[in-house]
Amino acid sequence: MKLTLRVWRQQNADAPGTMATYPVDGISEDMSFLEMLDTLNEELTLKGEEPVAFDHDCREGICGACSLVINGDAHGPERTTTCQLHMRSFDDGDTIDVEPWRAAAFPVVKDLVVDRSAFDRIIQSGGYISAPTGAAPEAHSTPVPKPDADFAFEHAECIGCGACVAACPNGSAMLFTSAKINHLNVLPQGAPERETRVLDMVAQMDEEGFGGCTLTGECATACPKGIPLPSIAAMNKEWLRATRKVSR
Ligand code: FES
């Protein structure tokens, strides 16, 4: 495949950015999108130019490190992570725009890399689980109703990539935050800190400068792990419940 890439280049957080155009040739449709960018970077390096900076780690759709807006869509045209997007989703001769996540709370570090440490601080604000750990307990020692276990697993799938924020016109992190709260709050092991967890994480989310939710639903559409939109309603319910139980 022969493609034209229009890639966001930005030297650092304070420098102005611009789209740079690069032709790439010899791209296999079986390559992942990141392997295609590797090919571009090898060519740039051989020419003595600076390679394009982009985030990646596992390249297996697990870690949440990859984060590109491709032709205006977070993670591109398929409902998957950028690392699991393959070039067969594009046509020979295509022009492809590649940009970083764009949100006030995710400042650009360089080129396509953004600072997502706001997510880390939201998780940290939730505190720890005080349930005793150690040797694995007998599986049935703490009964968990099947619907609750399914609910917890569904929300625990969030990999924290930030596509929800990038897709949201408000730059809201409510889908991410709700996934992190819901997967713990529904389980008996998460019950001791149930109220403080939701109050602190929502407060931190607001402090980080993420926008509010207006239920456009773009977040759930872009989420590569299928975290559902009602997750936000469940978080709001938890938050209301906690405000009645905890006086601060
Ligand atoms: S690099 Fe780990 S999810 Fe894409």
TrEMBL record:
Alphabetical GO biological process terms: aerobic respiration; respiratory electron transport chain
Pfam families reported for this sequence: Fer2_3 (PF13085), Fer4_7 (PF12838)
Family classification: Belongs to the succinate dehydrogenase/fumarate reductase iron-sulfur protein family.
UniProt protein name: Succinate dehydrogenase/fumarate reductase iron-sulfur subunit
Reported cofactor(s): [3Fe-4S] cluster; [2Fe-2S] cluster
Gene Ontology MF terms: 2 iron, 2 sulfur cluster binding; electron transfer activity; metal ion binding
Gene3D superfamilies assigned: 3.10.20.30, Alpha-helical ferredoxin
Organism: Streptomyces beijiangensis
Residue ranges annotated for the 4Fe-4S ferredoxin-type domain, each copy included: 149-179
Keywords: Iron, Iron-sulfur, Metal-binding
